[in-house]
Amino acid sequence: MLEASPPRDEAALVGVDVGGTFTDAVLVHRGRAVAVKRPTTPDDQSEGVVDAVLAVLDRAGVGVGDVGRFTHGMTVGTNALLEGKGARTALVATQGFGDILELRRQNRAHLYRLDVAHPPPLVPSERVVEVAERCGPDGVILPLTEAAIRDAVDRVRATDAEAVAVGLLFSFAYPAHEQTLAERLRSALPHVHVSASCEVLPEIREYERISTTTVDAYLTPVLRRYLDGLGERARAAGLPVPAIMLSGGGVLRLDEAARHAAWTVLSGPAAGALGAAHLAELSGESAALTFDMGGTSCDVALVQGGTAARTTETQIAGHPIHLPLLDVQTVSAGGGSIAWADPGGALRVGPESAGARPGPACYGRGGTRPTVTDANVVLGRIPPDLTLGGAVRLDPGAARHAVAGLAAELGLTLEECAAGIVTVAVQEMVRALRLASVERGIDPRGMALIAFGGAGPLHACQVAEELGMRRVLAPRAAGMLAALGLVVAGERRDYVQSVLLPLADGRALRERLAPLGRRAERELPGAVQRAAADCRYEGQTHALTVAWEPEAPASALAAAFHEAHRRRYGDADPGRPVQVVSIRLSAERPGVTPELEVGGGGRRTRGPDVLPLDGATCWVAPGWVARVDALGTIVMERE
């Protein structure tokens, strides 16, 4: 297996983030940060990744042998899930529970729209294999026999599957049946990837656990092919094999990441959130909302105390994924999002994107449909002489022609249509930011908005106004902040185990935590370990995750839970018994914090004005004042 080289003193650090339109690379070496953009290569993203690394090395005057660490964030798994291009997958389930992916939670896809349907399961019924076995809360009910194992293997072989998800009842507590089946499948079908739920997510809630395991099986062959190709391409170029960003905000060796694709579904957005959290800490912002608008989508997150918020659940393309990850919300509103008129004559933007090929009409690569970027060119918010990615020169005439066609269809002037496109896109982004703040009981009005990505600073003032925010930060390397987040990222592992124990039984909880701690020490020696517990009042359905100091009295954990319950729901019941549903452990080794050269600030300007950034353009709206601080960040404030 290929392994990433550890960073050396004075070595160059490289981070590469792949977006829908551009691939960004940042190199930090001896206090200097250098960045480049290169067009994304959709047919084989690894080609664009290595090309971007070599380009940034050339720009910095650094040789490939001086690279100490190469870190990569991508959306390969997410794209495969969104596009339905994963592996042909089978599911092995407990007899009588083969319909679990079809039944879901028996809730509607949309509360008020009866015409909205759930996406079809990743595994159709003809590739579901039920096996005669059964475990319950107290142990084995129906033993797994040799005949049942052979039958399951034969039936999986007959499906011609490329991957298999094994998800049995109560495997989070009694994994022996699942482990046996996984071992026999791997032995009998060595070219088939096998994901076992006890390895992917040993937690209660069988639908979420099996859904997550199925996503892992469905995506892992795709991710492994990509990462194997990237590793070989990097080695051929003389580069270290890259470490891979996980959805939880830490990096992992390439060969380890290739084993479980579900760990990396939000790899790219997580890198952006880390980069923004790093900037917030450097800028002294105690709380901020991050706003990363690229070519295809917009990713937002909440940062408090220099740390991006975390969660343990998300949905992608309607499929639940329950794993520790950074709490990033995504909407289909990017610079390449296509504007169109619906049958009722309303202006709509997205979710379809022009992507990297052909891209927006103004890129001059054959695109003819109007996009958000084209609208900004028409409005004069992007300088017409701007060169993107070192290769793309803008064609303002093509942008006007594309927008004019939609304007005629809607009965608007050219400028009215362009302004409408931007306004509709802004509302999509505001919706995501409200989900990350207002809908979680957090008032964004006193926070800063950190705008980055190639298109973020163009729309930041309008987004901030909609949210009542008065302060916007656009970093100097706004177009490449996600790549900088990859440079500063540390290593992290997350572990979880469902226990269903009384909170008062501190000794039993510590005994169940100990194996997780030993595993963390084996996998990440010397890492700082932090524990947390998912707690609920007895009889409740859902739990809240609170920090836990295992050696402290149980009353401390109880007090933390009551306070968390009061903050979330406005009430608490300290006299009611509390149950610990699952225990969690994180292990972290910090990344590097490069000392970068900084400037001495810059001029102040009032909007409307256009300010250039590295890899992006900043639009200072009327009513806003902008200045450049000592970090090179454009700080915009409402008058």
Q: What's this entry about, in short?
A:
The protein has 4 domains: about 10-80 and about 225-265, ATPase, nucleotide binding domain (Nucleotidyltransferase, domain 5, 2-Layer Sandwich); about 85-220, Rossmann fold (3-Layer(aba) Sandwich); about 280-490 and about 605-639, Nucleotidyltransferase, domain 5 (2-Layer Sandwich), CATH 3.30.420; about 490-590, Dna Ligase, domain 1 (2-Layer Sandwich), CATH 3.30.1490. The protein is of the alpha+beta class and about 650 residues long.
Task: Provide structural commentary.
α2 packs across α7 (206-236). 51% of the residues are buried. The strands form 10 sheets. Strands 13, 14, 15, 20, 25, 26, 31, 34 and 35 form a 9-stranded mixed sheet that branches. A 6-stranded mixed sheet has the order 3-2-1-4-11-12, sandwiched between helices. The model is unreliable at 1-7 (pLDDT under 50). The protein starts with 11 loop residues before the first strand and ends with a strand. β23 (387-388) and β24 (392-393) form a beta hairpin. The protein has 4 domains: 12-80 and 224-267, ATPase, nucleotide binding domain (Nucleotidyltransferase, domain 5, 2-Layer Sandwich); 83-222, Rossmann fold, CATH 3.40.50; 280-490 and 604-639, ATPase, nucleotide binding domain (Nucleotidyltransferase, domain 5); 492-589, Dna Ligase, domain 1 (2-Layer Sandwich), CATH 3.30.1490. The protein is built from 16 helices and 35 strands. Helix content is 33%, strand content 28%. It has 639 residues and is an alpha+beta fold.
